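Hi everyone,

Forwarding the result from last night's run.
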Amino acid sequence: MNKKLLGGVAMMACLLAGGAQAAGCGKPRNAFDTVYCAGNLFSQTDKSLNQTYGELRKQLTPDQQNTLKQSQLAWIKSRDEQCSREDSTGYFVNLDCAVTMTQTRLDFLKERQRECSSTGCEAGKLSQQ
């Protein structure tokens, strides 16, 4: 069964890479390709973040869940303040900033998940942004 799963993961990786190439993500031709590819990368990273957040919540007590939720809301506010702005001409999002911050937060959540599985969850660490 693991061989089938591994084969499926490898095939998905090839399809994703092929899709990225087809969209011009390997070598974007213009600003629109660059934005499209950055948007896709952000979406994938954000999806992983949300999945990991949900998995981590399942390992926590209700009080710890609340601590994590407040930390996550504060992190979202910080990310939005650092990576986006609005003015009279519209909304602007720096996708490189958003991807970097989201990946950093994803790494943080994965570390908390590993910690909870091995030595137990520390509420103080859950409150970090």
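Confidence is low (pLDDT under 50) at residues 1-22.

Cheers,
N.
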